[in-house]
Amino acid sequence: MPKKTTTKKTIKKTSVKPVMKEIPLPDPYCHCTKRKRNMILTCVFTASLLIGMFLGHMFFCPVCPHKAKPHVQFDANGCAVVESIKCPKMLEELPMIDIDHDGCVTKKEMGLAKKAMRHHKPVAPVEEPAPVEEPAVVDAIAPVMED
Fold first, then answer.
1. Distance between CA atoms of 64 and 61, rounded to whole angstroms?
2. Rounded distance between C-alpha atoms, residue 101 and residue 95, angstroms
């Protein structure tokens, strides 16, 4: 048997690829959509900020208009009228509020007491400093030592 010789032919496949330009994708948000989105986000942020401030003022503000404030009336002499004081804590501390113990609570004493009550401190009496005594001058001229 005769021997068959096989020849391999290599065929080069050359394919011509067409040059394609990349087409950009359309922008999912046009300028109108972005503006609407930004306006909605701004409104939501502003509304939540205002609601938070309102709730904080209503529940956590120490000086709110809906809470009863102690209104103390003063007579012509400048003394507090005891019947106008409705706060039981202030009525208990009325003798301590009267710093000079004259039976008359003035506006200044009431202001100091309210300030101390607000900061949860005891009412401290305001004492005037004692007059300082000056030492007596014995000799204006020092004695001269002789040798």
1. 6
2. 8
Per the CB < 8 A criterion, the answer to whether 59 and 65 are in contact is no
CA dist., res. 86 & res. 92, Å (int): 11
**Is the entire prediction scored with pTM above 0.70?**
no
- DSSP-derived letter for residue 129 is P
What tokens appear for 49 in the block?
């900020």
Find the range with the poorest average confidence among 74-78, 110-114, 132-136: 132-136
Question: Distance between CA atoms of 114 and 124, rounded to whole angstroms?
Answer: 12
Q: Rounded mean pLDDT of the chain?
A: 76
How crowded is the C-beta side of 84, counted as CA atoms within 13 Å?
A: 11
